């Protein structure tokens, strides 16, 4: 391989632009510029690569780039914002697929074309690459299927599940270590690839829809690590840098998500949370008080401060625009309107923020958990839109609750709570929510979007 | 010789050294790669902890687009004088990586331009109607 200064300098420039790009994301004002820099970095890296002396024909490259770009552009233009978690899961699968295919073809090339032994170092890198890559491909595809509701979102569990998963993982690891010492065993290599494809599926099967933010972040991390391992395998620094940045970003996000649920990563992965568990929540007494849209509208119209608490239900009902309309008509009346965003509301980190931004809610009105909780006492009405666990007071009050210790938005401390809900059933996690039975809570049943539209009309008339 | 020129030539020298070493994949190749990895990890941690939760979804799609840099490896695999199997795998890899490159950056930008600090700021009216 001839060393090419031009290509290496292009990669160096690309790495710098990537880092500046991510730095831009620390503020919404600089974020777009930053991303343009990162995109420019990507262009520089791709153009530089085209000068690689090893490339003899460009047909496949051009076909691949055009086909991929068209699909990618089409997906990004027509994908609705509510489908963002699904799209992200798919893109994790694509990224990991690219990394693991490069790894497999590299191995194949050494074994068949060159008849040259692979060094232990290279084998280690290739092994990590295909292990992380393949399990992310199938794991993300399964997450996609769950998010797209092509299969049920509840955890799928069976007896001996964890034992099976762990032994499968150990088997793959043993094969990997064996290959490092003897990389010529190509059958074993393909067995290892197959095992990690399988492991990806088994890993995500027992994870419920409500835990998806953690899984998304983890898959993000693995896809990045697969890219970084590719960089080790083919000796390319820009791949190591970009992959590591992605890997760490995903890692940090998954830790943040776990903290927001007061659970450990192992608990999320192996706890099969949200399966029909023994109900340890306090025997809830009382009845749920149903309220009419007209009453709620009156309450909202004469409130001083109203806080909206959106959850995944807002996304499924596509209700973000209706929320904004109601919020605006309240603001015209002089009501202070705020939006409280729990870190794990929705199906991926930051899901609610994007939806509200799409509906033109300015981000200065969006408040994080720690910012909004002290204001709850001074809030007249909290409107909970399709959120459940993130406002469940049991997490704070009942140490035996399955979600005990999870930080919540303390809507029950406001003067009055209105819960918009489709029906009387429990939430995704199947945990009873005492909030619904409190004296100052009113339940407004029905489709969130329809209810909100009704509320805005009633507010305008009052 | 100016200082800048000296430093850059030194840098090129180091680069060429690591390039030579790439031939004999061994401990000498591993070390520079590990340095890069460790420093990138540290930098990544510093940079990404500063991203506010507000932008976590764009962060995810942005890092996803950036890690699709594996397109670089895929391009070489698809275009080099390798056997047919490797080339077909390379082509598939180029397609799926470039889906992420183009799609990832475009959708990140689509999201980011929706974030406005105040009502009435420079706003993209186009996005208002979408998905309503």
Overview of this protein structure:
The complex is a heterodimer of chains A (462) and B (132). With 462 residues, chain A is an alpha/beta fold. Chain A has 2 domains: 79-270, no CATH class; 293-461, TPP-binding domain (Rossmann fold). Chain A contains 17 helices and 6 strands. Chain A has helices at 5-24, 28-49, 59-78, 84-114, 120-147, 161-181, 186-204, 212-234, 237-261, 265-270, 293-301, 312-316, 320-332, 351-358, 369-372, 394-397, 448-461; strands at 305-310, 336-341, 366-368, 381-385, 416-421, 441-445. Chain A has a 6-stranded parallel beta sheet. With 132 residues, chain B is mainly α. Chain B has 2 domains: 1-50; 53-132. Helices cover 73% and strands 0% of the residues of chain B. Chain B is built from 6 helices and no strands. In chain B, helix 3 (56-67) runs antiparallel to helix 5 and helix 4 runs antiparallel to helix 5. The longest helix of chain B is centred in the last third of the chain and has 29 residues, at 84-112. Chain B starts with a helix and ends with a helix. Classes of the chains: A alpha/beta (462), B mainly alpha (132). Chains A and B meet through helix 1, helix 2, helix 3, helix 4 and helix 8 of A and helix 1, helix 2, helix 3, helix 4 and helix 5 of B.
Strand content of chain B: under 5%
Topology of chain A as a string of helices (H) and strands (E):
HHHHHHHHHHHEHHEHEHEHEEH
Question: What is the total number of structural domains of chain A?
Answer: 2
Mean pLDDT value of chain A: 88
The biggest sheet of chain B amounts to: none
